[in-house]
UniProtKB/TrEMBL annotation:
<keyword id="KW-0521">NADP</keyword>
<dbReference type="GO" id="GO:0102965">
    <property type="term" value="F:alcohol-forming long-chain fatty acyl-CoA reductase activity"/>
</dbReference>
<dbReference type="Pfam" id="PF03015">
    <property type="entry name" value="Sterile"/>
</dbReference>
<dbReference type="GO" id="GO:0080019">
    <property type="term" value="F:alcohol-forming very long-chain fatty acyl-CoA reductase activity"/>
</dbReference>
<dbReference type="InterPro" id="IPR013120">
    <property type="entry name" value="FAR_NAD-bd"/>
</dbReference>
<feature type="transmembrane region" description="Helical">
    <location>
        <begin position="356"/>
        <end position="382"/>
    </location>
</feature>
<keyword id="KW-0560">Oxidoreductase</keyword>
<dbReference type="GO" id="GO:0005777">
    <property type="term" value="C:peroxisome"/>
</dbReference>
<dbReference type="Pfam" id="PF07993">
    <property type="entry name" value="NAD_binding_4"/>
</dbReference>
<protein>
    <recommendedName>
        <fullName>Fatty acyl-CoA reductase</fullName>
        <ecNumber>1.2.1.84</ecNumber>
    </recommendedName>
</protein>
<comment type="similarity">
    <text>Belongs to the fatty acyl-CoA reductase family.</text>
</comment>
<keyword id="KW-0472">Membrane</keyword>
<keyword id="KW-1133">Transmembrane helix</keyword>
<feature type="domain" description="Fatty acyl-CoA reductase C-terminal">
    <location>
        <begin position="365"/>
        <end position="458"/>
    </location>
</feature>
<dbReference type="GO" id="GO:0035336">
    <property type="term" value="P:long-chain fatty-acyl-CoA metabolic process"/>
</dbReference>
<dbReference type="InterPro" id="IPR033640">
    <property type="entry name" value="FAR_C"/>
</dbReference>
<keyword id="KW-0444">Lipid biosynthesis</keyword>
């Protein structure tokens, strides 16, 4: 396939030739995949500069070298040579800090050399404090736009937003929306007030917006919209970004957000109930498809005369998969193909339409077993763990239930036109922006396998033991259910049937 398509031009890669690209969020999930894709497909670029903060005593280039040494970059080093990673450089800074914490020397260098800015940095925690979320997602974007104004060769400033930042819009179109508040006033408030005071007034500021993430991402978007017509800005709104579908490592991720967390929790047997409509569907986009669309959209913006600048990178207009289908596929993958190690209970449970039934099941099948197991651990001299795990699951439910029990749809006509603009097989292969050909069972199989390897550190040589353990847990599950059914029937016989027979 690769030999056949090489005869065609790659206009997208040609556009990136000799460009210097500045990326924030390059050490995050999407950022890592973005850097790898740029190196592999647009290898004639001049340089990738990543904004990196010191962390745990490690300097920026130390952190970058550690990331580039990971398995995600094995393919590009094999194809392009190990020296390809020398095109990646780091600038010390922090989006949370005033003026991004960048030194004057580095700021001058960026202003003189950078042609493209990809602003991906954000806190994606839904329970983040409002002050921190504002400083990172809103003020950080403001500082990035100020830097963009200094860049003498700037061709495009890309702001990675989210499809879920205007939650009052049940159909999200590819156009700007009014922010929930004045972003400049909210930023000033966050700068002036202490953490405690800010926390106290958070409900009043958020009003009907369920979390600080959606609120502050909408503010960040509004700041970018203000610069439209003054700067070459573009807004990308990906939906829920999930593990890699195709390349370079199918199923790869570095976090347990979204479906991956559900698969691991259910696969370990600690997730037994969810309050969710079975026929509800969320909008998911594999990270490699999001990255492909990002690179192609920058090219499209620069060379298309219409200068379309807002793209909803979403899938549900074409591909819908319900929550029930995801759970059933995940259960089948884990139970029959790729079990996890150390399963606490045979994977089961179900989604509940009734919140009361869900709460009862959570108490019976989450809290009680956790308390019993932790009590046993204390008796034998170990630290309790399951109650802490269940507390995290409960907090996760608070976020999950809002999105799982509400429905949004997304108009993505501009994204579809972007796909149509990729004219030849090479461009369509290198920057695949659609889900044509996806097999959900195979996809979730690769997700579970990659989660075993890269998240849980469970190597393939442990699979036979995991399958044996799963079989034992299946027997235990059946025995327990049989005993429970017998106990219920015996109780009914003693309390109901036996007195009736005696009366007759």
């Amino acid at each position: 396939m690769t030999e056949d398509i090489e005869q065609y031009p790659d206009r997208v890669a040609d556009m990136y030739k000799d460009k210097t690209i500045f990326i924030t969020g390059g050490t995050g999930f999407m950022g890592k995949v973005l850097v790898e894709k740029l190196l592999r497909t647009c290898s004639d670029l001049k340089k990738i500069i990543i904004l990196v903060r010191n962390k745990k005593g490690k300097y920026p280039m130390e952190r970058i070298r550690e990331i580039l040494a990971g398995p995600l970059y094995d393919k590009v080093k094999k194809l392009k040579g190990a020296e390809i990673i020398n095109k990646v450089d780091a600038v010390e800074g922090d989006v949370m800090l005033p003026n991004l914490g960048i030194s004057e020397k580095d700021r001058i260098m960026l202003a003189n050399e950078v042609q493209l800015i990809l602003h991906c940095a954000a806190t994606i925690r839904f329970d983040e404090t409002l002050k921190k979320a504002v400083l990172l997602n809103a003020r950080g974007t403001k500082f990035m736009l100020e830097l963009a104004k200094e860049c003498k060769q700037l061709q495009c400033f890309v702001h990675v937003s989210t499809a879920y930042c205007h939650l009052s819009e049940r159909i999200l179109y590819e156009r700007p929306y009014a922010p929930p508040a004045d972003p400049h006033k909210v930023i000033q408030t966050a700068e002036w007030l202490s953490d405690d005071v800010m926390e106290t007034i958070t409900p009043k500021i958020l009003q009907d917006i369920p979390n600080t993430y959606a609120f502050t991402k909408a503010l960040g978007e509004a700041l970018v919209v203000e610069q439209h017509g003054k700067l070459p800005v573009m807004i990308l709104r990906p939906s829920v970004v999930i593990p890699i579908w195709k390349e370079p490592i199918p199923g790869w991720t570095d976090n347990i957000n979204g479906p991956t967390g559900l698969l691991i929790g259910a696969g370990k047997g600690v997730l037994r109930t969810m309050y969710c409509k079975q026929d509800a569907y969320a909008d998911y986009m594999p990270v490699d498809i999001v990255v492909n669309a990002t690179l192609a959209s920058v090219w499209f913006y620069i060379y298309d005369e219409r200068k379309k600048w807002i793209f909803n990178l979403t899938s549900s207009a074409l591909y819908k998969i319900t929550m029930e289908e995801i759970i059933n596929i995940g259960r089948k993958v884990i139970n029959t193909k790729i079990p996890l190690n150390g399963v606490a209970w045979y994977p089961g449970g179900s989604m509940k339409r009734s919140k009361i039934v869900h709460y009862i099941c959570f108490f019976l099948f989450h809290i009680i077993p956790a308390v019993l197991v932790d009590a046993l651990l204390l008796v034998i001299g170990y630290k309790p763990v399951l109650c802490r795990v269940q507390n995290r699951i409960w907090k996760g439910f608070e976020v999950f239930e809002y999105y799982a029990n509400n429905q949004w749809d997304f108009d993505n006509q501009e994204s579809l036109s972007l796909r149509d603009a990729l004219l030849n097989p090479r461009e369509r292969e290198n920057y695949k922006c659609d889900g044509d050909g996806i097999d959900y069972f195979e996809y979730f199989s690769t997700c579970v396998h990659a989660a075993r390897l890269y998240i849980l550190k469970e190597t393939d040589d442990t699979l036979p033991a995991a399958r044996r353990h799963m079989f034992v847990m299946w027997i235990v599950d059946k025995v327990c259910k049989g005993l429970f059914l017998f106990a219920v029937m015996y109780y009914l016989y003693q309390k109901v049937l036996s007195p009736l027979l005696a009366a007759v």
